[in-house]
Amino acid sequence: MKITKIETLQADGGYRICSYIKVSTDEGIVGWAEFYDGFAGVSVVPVIQGFAKSAIGMNPLHYAHLSETLLATTRLASGGLSHQAVAAIENACLDICGKARGVPVHALFGGPFRDRVPVYWTHCGSFRVRYPALYEKWGYEPVRNLNDFTRLGKEAVSQGFKAVKTNPVFFDKSEPYMFNGGFRIAPGFLDRSYTDAQIGAIVEQLEALREGLGQHTGLMLDVSFSQRTEGYLRLARKLEALNLYWLELDTRDAESLSLIRNGTRTPIASLESLHGLSEYRPFIAGRTVDMAIVDPLWNGVWQSLRIATLADAFETHIAPHNPVGELGNLMSLQFCAALSNVRIMELRPDEAPWTRSFVTHPPEIVNGDMLVPNRPGWGADVNEEALREHPIKNK
Q: Confidence band (pLDDT; 50, 70, 90) for 183?
């Protein structure tokens, strides 16, 4: 089997662009994968198109050899965009391999370890603050005050979620606003330091959410790259009484992350922004986290399984980074089904409602668990007609 064509397709997803790669073969089998576009302010699409020149003619069933070959060409100029582009091609080849063998992707790696995976509601409330007009247009209840976080907590429990994760939201201006995660150009994004008043406001926000959740549903906070080591430590210590499921943060410094984890009783989750086994190695071997977050769309599912195996050797759980659409959900789900050390899976349940039509078989959630499908490949194909009905805007 040989790859004959590699295309990228995109559609409007509301506040984001939904992006897919389509890999065609000389035997008529087509592989799909979802990827992120625009996280770095520049598109991954041209990078994918560049790697496609080398991938065309290669055998997609030899996905590991293909992935390693393409990554080897980046050694003098390695980086996130290159890794993400290769990952997109690798992931589409995994879909082809599963379809060619008539099995789900997890079966390529000895799965399933489970037939369902617990999910948590990510960006709970915080994205409704970040994009208020869109969410109200889609019929979702707005978040205007702390009482709305309590209401969302109750809603999450009623829907069976095992945990929820939010981001800091502040109410000290005329309109509520979401914190700056330290990676988007905006006023103050280089400061990376919370005031004591802001930390107090974060505690109040989490207390309001906890009131709605009760004591048996997990509560998480994600603060991204917003702090330096001292700020993360101050925040983590202030949050100890809330018994968080985890505090999620990002840093490129393994020693700093180890200092944070050892300096607080709050469980620490991190590492989602890393690419490749070599970047993960010092963090996992140094036991810097309670929970290692791996992005299977940025790393490729096969490469991510290698990282997860390394984490397993150090008795560390894995959770996938997964803030995308329904095909991305299925890809993360297949990744989780192939793992023995997965803890919980990220899910954004309040996306633009039309995006569910972008796949032929959206994932099914029952009592807070996403069910692992038995269909070949990822378990769904992309509905190209639905993509055409929602062209991206202002491109």
A: confident
SS3 content of the chain, % helix, strand, coil (to 5): 40, 20, 40
Shared-domain flag, residues 284 and 297: yes
What is this structure's pTM?
A: 0.96
With respect to residue 392, please indicate whether it lies within any of the assigned structural domains. Answer: no
Residue 389 within a domain: no
Angle at which helix 301-313 crosses helix 80-101, to 10 degrees, equals 100
Domain shared by 201 and 138, yes or no: yes
Contact 122, 323 (CB under 8 A): yes
- What is the count of structural domains for the chain? 2
Alpha-carbon distance 106 to 117, whole Å? 13
Nearest-5° angle of CA 332, CA 202, CA 316? 35
Domain boundary among 103, 127, 142: 103
CA distance linking residue 218 with residue 355, whole number of Å = 27
Pair 139, 193 in one domain: yes
Work out the mean pLDDT of the chain and round it to a whole number: 96
pLDDT for 137 equals 96
Has residue 360 been placed in a domain? yes
pLDDT in tens, 64-121: 999 999 999 998 888 889 999 999 999 999 999 999 999 999 999 999 999 999 999 9
Confirm whether 388 is domain-assigned: no
Report which residue type is found at 200. Answer: G
What are the angstrom distances between the C-alpha of 244 and each of 89, 154, 240, 268, 339?
Answer: 37, 17, 7, 9, 24
Radius of gyration of the chain measured on its C-alpha atoms: 20
DSSP-based three-state secondary structure for 293: strand
CA distance linking residue 130 with residue 178, whole number of Å: 6
* CA distances in angstroms from 293 to 121, 143, 257, listed in the order given: 16, 28, 14
Written as one string, the DSSP assignment of 333-353 is HHHHHT-SSB--EEE--SS-G
Answer yes or no: do 91 and 157 share one domain.
no
**What angle in degrees, to the nearest 10, is found between the helix axes of 80-101 and 45-55?**
50
Contact in structure between 105 and 338 (CB atoms under 8 Å)? yes
On whether both 69 and 129 belong to a single domain, the answer is no
On whether both 293 and 155 belong to a single domain, the answer is yes
Domain end residue (candidates: 56, 83, 103):
103
